[in-house]
């Protein structure tokens, strides 16, 4: 293989000493969906592309879709995606003459930007001085105050008054919701400040924090800015990102429903955003974020000196390709006009996370086998006159895709665009509800519940929305009679697949005229909940009879119900006889049911997992419903007209109650130990923090379930642990009081 040579650059010096340049090959210093997004535009512009990857990412789509790819060797993020030296070396090796940082990782690291420029490469981003100016939220607020941008005044934790509570403690160097805590009264303040400082130090290497007034029902409104090196600054529409979990965004849309109700605020908001950009000599794409009240009063939060995750909604409503503009501005070109195009229509985006919301947003690593929307979706597209469209920005290309715990849990963004908000929201809910997502748990059902919630539909939801609605948006989309039909379809599909392996002639009621015998003897298979004790067992027992004969088959299936973690649901008991199925008190009646319309290999099945895909027709109450049942390894996914659910043969993660001795606390997921608060022999009380586990950039605290003594502590800071691994063992108080004392040590 020949080594590419670096392309010749033509540079122009700017007022602050940095340079803009023409370039021909760009290295994307990132991974996943944003790397794929940048590759798409670069290829459209005729630019060469270079991806970087770790050993774990060797087969990831971003690594295989670029023209060239360079492996980053190392065992940690600090040695790979967070290593400026490794990334610049990769650019040299590959002949890249520009670097685009994407978002996250080193995208807002001024030292990295300087190193790129110092290496003679073009930096696709704002100047390092602008990054530094906005890198500290404390100094950023001072600059914005001087520029006349409205601010929430800083509060000194030592002098905050009772009337000023609740207050928000924020990491000065923070982002992504990390290093943020809310203190609702004085008794919480010291603890929350300490926790915010600790997390800020761990996440950003800087424990500086500050306090400000906390708006309980604020609206997160932000303005997309684009600025060139010739003095033009665009405010390219606003977005609202008020639906958040753990101070991290879930749903974003443009335009903002709040600003649509108060259109007179828009010009003031845009003026403030342009003033903020001008105050720091901003160049390129960035976002000025504000917190607004219900009556339209707004306050500066921060400037994100990079492309935002939610940039697709602005691309949809403006018709712009923001990544193309980043490339053009970095090459020294002016913006094409004094003002941006007029925004039209409405766009909304939902982030599909690999997590279980009902289990405190527990990350859900594993293998993603299928990710497909029911409609025609585009990887990247701006409207170009269309009335409506669907777009998906995903980390997944050819699947399966391994989803680990070292990175953010977002696996895709789904975006819809329509002439008005109601149509866009309805289209997004339909796309997500009907998506085929097999292999890992996601927040899919929560997203559907949010999009269909009346308050969200009205456009009045604030940042307090998830806290206010609680369990309303944690309920599974498929429940009740719909879940019963899915259980029937699952049992029939598994029976057909098993019988088909024994007899090629098997067909279950293809013409809806009765059942054909699929076996001489009854068979029974019991399936367990996929998340052990945390899942609710929803059972369906099918018994098929012909003329009073013995059952042809009987199956018990347990619905995969992570949404009901910690709660109890009434079991299903479904009996099928004489062509009818009934289900206990719900009186589900399937009068003539169960045509198995076809069984074949599951698409995208890994060679070692195999898998079958079966289409089943279930008639219930005179209605026919078609269900696609995919059996792959230990999982049974059912996609039906009412949504999707999962059945499972064995636990996805080990059941802590079954796999460990008394007092053992096991890791609920794979991750890294980032803090240990106790030592062997310590006496602890119920609820006391024992250690902290980090997975998918989220922190999880393991607490003592009861009073006791730490008898075993087999892990330490820095250890990587697997799901089900013992973290700590607690002996209950008094457990060993009656044991004979050993010999004394003297």
UniProtKB/TrEMBL annotation:
Domain Biotin carboxylation: 22-471
Keywords tagged on the record: ATP-binding, Biotin, Ligase, Nucleotide-binding
Lipoyl-binding domain residues: 659-731
EC number(s) recorded for this UniProt protein: 6.3.4.14
Protein name: biotin carboxylase
Gene3D superfamilies xref list: 2.40.50.100, ATP-grasp fold, B domain
GO molecular function: ATP binding; biotin carboxylase activity; metal ion binding
PROSITE patterns: ATP_GRASP, BC, BIOTIN, BIOTINYL_LIPOYL, CPSASE_1, CPSASE_2
Keyword ATP-binding found: yes
InterPro entries, A to Z: ATP-grasp, BC-like_N, Biotin_BS, Biotin_carboxylase_complex, Biotin_carboxylation_dom, Biotin_COase_C, Biotin_lipoyl, CPAse_ATP-bd
Gene source species: Dietzia timorensis
Pfam families: Biotin_carb_C, Biotin_carb_N, Biotin_lipoyl, CPSase_L_D2
Domain of life: Bacteria
Cofactor (UniProt): biotin
Reactions that this protein is recorded to catalyse: N(6)-biotinyl-L-lysyl-[protein] + hydrogencarbonate + ATP = N(6)-carboxybiotinyl-L-lysyl-[protein] + ADP + phosphate + H(+)
This protein's record includes keyword Nucleotide-binding: yes
ATP-grasp domain residues: 141-331
């Amino acid at each position: 293989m020949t080594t590419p040579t670096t392309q010749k650059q033509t540079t122009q010096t700017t007022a602050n000493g940095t340079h803009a340049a023409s370039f021909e090959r760009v290295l994307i210093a990132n991974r996943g969906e944003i790397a794929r997004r940048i590759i798409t535009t670069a290829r459209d512009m005729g630019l060469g592309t270079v991806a970087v990857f770790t050993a774990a990412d060797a087969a990831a789509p971003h690594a295989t879709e670029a023209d060239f790819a360079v492996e980053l060797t190392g065992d940690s993020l600090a040695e790979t995606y967070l290593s400026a030296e490794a990334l610049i070396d990769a650019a040299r090796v590959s002949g890249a003459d520009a670097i685009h940082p994407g978002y996250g990782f080193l995208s807002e690291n001024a030292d990295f930007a300087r190193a790129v420029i110092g290496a003679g490469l073009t930096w696709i981003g704002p100047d390092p001085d602008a990054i530094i100016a906005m890198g500290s939220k404390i100094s950023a607020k001072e600059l914005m105050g001087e520029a006349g941008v409205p601010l929430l005044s800083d509060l000194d934790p030592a002098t905050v008054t009772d009337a000023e509570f609740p207050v928000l403690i924020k990491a000065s160097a923070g982002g992504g919701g990390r290093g943020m805590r809310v203190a609702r009264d004085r008794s919480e303040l010291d603890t929350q400040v300490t926790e915010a400082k600790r997390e800020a130090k761990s996440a950003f290497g800087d424990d500086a924090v500050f306090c400000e007034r906390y708006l309980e029902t604020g609206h997160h409104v932000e303005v997309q800015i684009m600025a060139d090196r010739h003095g033009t600054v665009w405010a390219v529409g606003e977005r609202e990102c008020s639906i958040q979990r753990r101070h991290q965004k879930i749903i974003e849309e443009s335009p903002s429903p709040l600003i649509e109700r108060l259109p007179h605020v828009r010009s003031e908001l845009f003026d403030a955003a342009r003033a903020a950009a001008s105050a720091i000599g901003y160049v390129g794409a960035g976002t000025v974020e504000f917190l607004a009240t219900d009556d339209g009063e707004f306050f500066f939060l921060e400037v994100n000196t990079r492309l935002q995750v939610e940039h697709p909604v602005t691309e949809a409503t403006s018709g712009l390709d923001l990544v193309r503009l980043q490339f053009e501005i970095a090459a020294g070109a002016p913006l094409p006009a004094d003002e941006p195009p007029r925004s039209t229509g409405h766009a909304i985006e939902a982030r599909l996370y690999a997590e279980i919301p009902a289990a405190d947003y527990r990350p859900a690593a594993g293998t993603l086998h299928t990710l497909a929307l029911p409609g025609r979706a585009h990887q990247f597209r701006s409207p170009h006159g269309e009335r409506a469209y669907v777009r998906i920005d995903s980390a997944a290309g050819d699947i399966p895709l391994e989803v680990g715990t070292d990175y953010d849990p977002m696996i895709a963004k789904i975006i819809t665009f329509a002439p008005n908000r109601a149509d866009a929201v309805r289209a997004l809910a339909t796309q997500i509800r009907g998506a085929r997502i097999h292999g890992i748990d996601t927040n899919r059902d929560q997203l559907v519940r949010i999009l269909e919630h009346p308050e969200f539909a009205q456009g009045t939801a604030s940042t307090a929305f998830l806290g206010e609605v609680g369990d309303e948006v944690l309920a599974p989309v498929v429940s009740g009679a719909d879940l019963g039909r899915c259980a029937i379809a699952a049992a029939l599909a598994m029976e057909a697949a098993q019988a088909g392996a024994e007899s090629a002639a098997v067909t279950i009621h293809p013409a809806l005229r009765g059942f054909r015998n699929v076996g001489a003897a009854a068979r029974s298979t019991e399936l367990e909940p996929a998340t052990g004790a945390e899942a609710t067992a929803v059972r369906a027992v099918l018994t098929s009879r012909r003329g009073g004969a013995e059952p042809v088959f009987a199956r018990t299936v347990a619905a995969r119900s992570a949404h009901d973690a910690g709660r109890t649901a009434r079991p299903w008991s479904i009996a099928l006889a004489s062509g009818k199925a009934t289900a206990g008190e719900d009186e589900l009646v399937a009068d003539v049911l169960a045509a198995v319309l076809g069984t074949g290999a599951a698409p995208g099945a890994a060679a070692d997992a195999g898998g079958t895909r079966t289409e089943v027709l279930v008639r219930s109450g005179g209605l026919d419903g078609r269900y696609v049942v995919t059996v792959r390894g230990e999982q049974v996914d059912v996609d039906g007209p009412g949504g999707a659910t999962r059945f499972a043969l064995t636990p996805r993660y080990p059941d802590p109650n079954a796999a460990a001795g008394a007092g053992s606390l096991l890791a609920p997921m794979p991750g890294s130990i980032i803090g240990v608060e106790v030592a062997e022999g310590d006496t602890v009380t119920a609820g006391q923090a024992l250690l902290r586990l980090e997975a998918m950039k989220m922190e999880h605290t393991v607490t003592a379930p009861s009073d006791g003594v730490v008898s075993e502590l087999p892990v330490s800071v820095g250890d990587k642990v697997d799901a089900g691994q013992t973290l700590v063992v607690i002996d209950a108080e008094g457990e060993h009081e009656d044991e004979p004392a050993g010999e004394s040590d003297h």
